Amino acid sequence: MADRVTYRRRNPYNTKSNKIKVVKTPGGVLRAQHVKKIGTRPKCGDCGIALPGVSSLRPRQYANVSKTHKTVSRAYGGSRCANCVKERVVRAFLIEEQKIVKRVLKEQAEKEKKAEKKASKSKK
């Protein structure tokens, strides 16, 4: 029958944060080795896919790693994926184009109104 091991920390319950792995030491004794939780990959804020190029760590560990592990060198580097950034750029461009088209159409309509007023005055 396998030897029993006991927890080495004060928490005596089998919770998510208190997982152990049984390890045999060089002296031949079985010990409980506490296992840390693995970090999840950061997700894109728009579409929800895992961000490539950003390391997956526990939240507190991000404070100890360099900036290159937390972001990619692009606008919205550590929070949005490349496709969503591209979509935002295209959307902003199209909105600006739409504003320009509206302005041009408004100017044309005003010119036509002025031309009609001139034509109606010259007939009288």
UniProtKB/TrEMBL annotation:
<dbReference type="GO" id="GO:0003735">
    <property type="term" value="F:structural constituent of ribosome"/>
</dbReference>
<dbReference type="GO" id="GO:0006412">
    <property type="term" value="P:translation"/>
</dbReference>
<dbReference type="Pfam" id="PF01199">
    <property type="entry name" value="Ribosomal_L34e"/>
</dbReference>
<keyword id="KW-0687">Ribonucleoprotein</keyword>
<dbReference type="GO" id="GO:1990904">
    <property type="term" value="C:ribonucleoprotein complex"/>
</dbReference>
<dbReference type="InterPro" id="IPR008195">
    <property type="entry name" value="Ribosomal_eL34"/>
</dbReference>
<comment type="similarity">
    <text>Belongs to the eukaryotic ribosomal protein eL34 family.</text>
</comment>
<protein>
    <recommendedName>
        <fullName>60S ribosomal protein L34-B</fullName>
    </recommendedName>
</protein>
<dbReference type="GO" id="GO:0005840">
    <property type="term" value="C:ribosome"/>
</dbReference>
<keyword id="KW-0689">Ribosomal protein</keyword>
<dbReference type="InterPro" id="IPR018065">
    <property type="entry name" value="Ribosomal_eL34_CS"/>
</dbReference>
<dbReference type="InterPro" id="IPR038562">
    <property type="entry name" value="Ribosomal_eL34_C_sf"/>
</dbReference>
